[in-house]
Here is the input.
Amino acid sequence: MSPASKSGVTGPVSSAYDDLVGRGAVSDDPLQRDALRVLDRIASGLGAVGGQRKGLVALFARRETIKGAYLVGDVGRGKTMLMDLFFGAVPIAEKRRVHFHEFMSEVHEGIIAFRAKAKGKSESADPIAAVTKPLVKSLRLLCLDEFHVHDITNAMLLQRLFEKLFEGGVTLVATSNVVPDRLYENGLNRQLFLPFITLLKANTELVELDGPTDYRRLKFEGQEVYFFGPEADAGMDRLWERVTGGQGGTPAEVRLGTRRLKVPRAAMGAARFDFADLCEKPLGAFDYLKLAHAFDTLFIDHVPQLDRTRSDASKRLILLIDTLYDRGVKLAASFAAPLEDLGQDDKTRFEFARTVSRLIEMQSTDYLNAPRKPEE
Here is the structure.
């Protein structure tokens, strides 16, 4: 009998967790079990509301707010894994998962677009209401990864934004490294931000994952992250299985302004691409930064030797590695040549020397053990 069965927890999220534990993909953790009870409650509640018949019953049920959750803990305590399991287990279509930074960028873009319209220039215009109206209409569940507040623009916006969302029946589930009471700590005019903290605490259940084990570090402990030669694909597959807890991964997308970057495989905060997907397409610094926001680990298959016929691809790889390095994103990759022989293009030789130096550092124990850096 599984630990969940012994404790009476049989909800959809805990069942998915039991499967991972049973396959040896993750270690059973008591604090994660506590979080599962909260996530099962939310998933079951949303499923019950979503399953009601259409018509007036569904109309009024939509206004029923299911209290959400705020998962907080240090890096590597399983927040991303639990969010993965939860989001997959919630049996409704009206759900969205997005990085907090990206979500707030979308909100600001929506406000700017509204104010550019004739109706947005009126003194009585309410840009927050205009931005939240389509969200409330299309969402029952909003999952935000890496919730944090560090600038006054977002701090002053969040109170009214989430008032509208919660009033519209949107359930929030968020992950963060910071407890609500420490959000925007020491920020300018923080007293104006405090009502949002009260609102957030009233609409989410605090779930603390403050155990001593850094599971993310353990995934990389003693592991090679770069692969060369004929066994490279097999090595990448083994590491992917370890990092994702045995999950194959599913296709995903990263929003790049008005565009979308297709992610061939994503699971447990990791994404896997072929080199051509990232460096032989017209991507730039903004795109790579968005990718670094969305994932804490990146797998890149089949990095070729980069000669003068691949100058553009070489420049993109340099930019990509710089972005991942600056953000502290973990990298696994397979290469067609040793690192010191990788860059053979005279146009990028100097810049590529720095890239090789960073690649060497990015496979070090210190780099792999360090947490991902917050956005500036």
Q: What stands out?
A: Residues 11 and 41 are 8 Å apart (CA to CA). The first helix runs from residue 3 to 7. The radius of gyration is 22 Å. The chain has two domains: 3-208, 215-369.
